[in-house]
Amino acid sequence: MSNSTDTVDKLVVFLAKRDGIDKLVKTFQYVSKLVHWHAESSIHADVARRAKSWETAAGLSRKAFRTGRFLTGFNALRRSPAPTPLFCALSVLANAGEMIYFFFDHFLWLSRIGVLETTLARKMSFISAFGESVGYVFFIIMDFIMIKKGLIEERRLLKNKDKINTNTNNTNNTNNNEEVKRIRGDRVMRLTGVAANVADLVIAVADIEPNPFCNHAVTLGISGLVSAWAGWYRNWPS
């Protein structure tokens, strides 16, 4: 009973976050895309129509809910000082791409709901997706740099652990174990971030340069769900 109560409490905390709601609605969006594809190929016209309506509604609601999200890029740059000039440059480029993505996504949303000219939708989609893809590329590079640094530090700590075991220093051994655990936890979170960014990059490429692979409903559906569930994992309360 206590486990189920704890899960409910965590779900409440998760859904209280803007990112939590976004990942839930993103799951709806891409599940409905796969349902639409399957129903359409199986000649279930009514199910396909309903699934398409659900997908469209979920996609538009996510865009509305992300209003003002482009400001998080400024906040990230202000709050997270980069350890090296290279990392600082990568962080600026990554967050700049993300800011372009979220900023022009507002105009894409307005054009799709008819507030702005519908002819603007394609141009806004291209600019937004281009900024998004640039941001994802640099975020992926940053994550791999930090993963590599973590692996080097972990190897150093494990070597020290062997020396500590020889000297039977329990306090230092405990500190080493905790640091190794932290590094491994950080690596898991960064790998899930890479998975999400690669999946979203596929979706962005489908907007920038439409092609049979990236624009296939199954590719988009699976990519969307990978991104949503990786984000779900990263934002789930510990």
TrEMBL record:
Alphabetically ordered keywords of this record: Membrane, Peroxisome, Peroxisome biogenesis, Transmembrane, Transmembrane helix
Pfam families: PEX11
InterPro entries noted in UniProt: PEX11
Subcellular location: Peroxisome membrane
One GO molecular-function entry: identical protein binding
Keyword Membrane attached: yes
Membrane-spanning ranges: 86-104, 124-147
Keyword Coiled coil listed: no
GO BP annotations, alphabetical order: peroxisome fission; regulation of peroxisome size
Topology relative to the membrane: Multi-pass membrane protein
GO cellular component entries: peroxisomal membrane
The protein's role, per its UniProt record: Involved in peroxisomal proliferation.
Record-stated family: Belongs to the peroxin-11 family.
Name of the molecule in the record: Peroxisomal membrane protein 11-4
Gene, per the UniProt record: LOC109707234
